[in-house]
Specification:
This protein is mainly alpha-helical. Helices cover 62% and strands 5% of the residues. The chain contains eight helices and two strands; from the N terminus they run H-E-E-H-H-H-H-H-H-H. The protein has helices at residues 2-19, 46-49, 54-61, 67-82, 93-104, 112-121, 123-131, 137-159; strands spanning 34-37, 42-45. The chain has a two-stranded antiparallel ribbon. Helix 6 runs antiparallel to helix 7 (123-131). The radius of gyration is 25 Å and the shape is flat. It starts with a helix and ends with a helix.
Length: 160
């Protein structure tokens, strides 16, 4: 009996050790993110945008900026520079999360996992969908509710 407790304790200890190791993701670089500027379709990186002059931006866009626009641009440019580290990567998690969401695509459309949770587990599946926290939580919860509603309707039709 004593050996079983020692073995179980060691397994729990090893389980905790292995669970604490997480992979390191490389940071998102500002020089790798391009977006179109103006109607010409010219592209500029966020790193370039953090250091570009107002006159150069006006030439790229083809529009003259008003005083308020120039002031707003300078303030936004300062915030962008403050959020960049010296190696050109983002320091804030909020910006990284928004950029990853943009690169991955939206959170709309059919979510098979959420639908399966709701359809197979009913209200317990909806609860599980609420407990899972990631970028697709809202879509998963919606489809879990749809799956639950569908199984209730099908059950009522079968009962009648």
């Amino acid at each position: 009996m004593k050996k079983i407790f020692v073995l179980a304790g060691l397994l729990f200890l090893l389980n905790g050790v292995f669970a604490s190791v997480s992979p390191v993701k490389p940071p998102v670089k500002a020089a790798d993110i391009f977006f179109p500027v103006g109607e010409t379709g010219a592209k500029i990186s966020l790193l370039e945008l953090s250091s570009i002059k107002v006159k150069e931006l006006e030439q790229l866009t083809g529009n003259k900026m008003s005083f308020g626009d120039r002031l707003t641009f300078k303030i936004a440019q300062k915030k962008l520079r403050d959020n960049l580290s010296p190696d050109g990567s983002f320091e804030t998690k909020k910006i990284e999360k928004a950029l990853k969401k943009q690169q991955r695509g939206g959170e709309t459309g059919f979510h098979l996992g959420g639908f399966a949770l709701g359809f197979l587990l009913g209200l317990i599946g909806v609860l599980i969908a609420y407990l899972i926290k990631d970028d697709y939580k809202r879509n998963r919860v919606k489809w879990a509710w749809i799956g639950t509603a569908l199984i209730i309707v099908l059950s009522l039709l079968f009962y009648i």
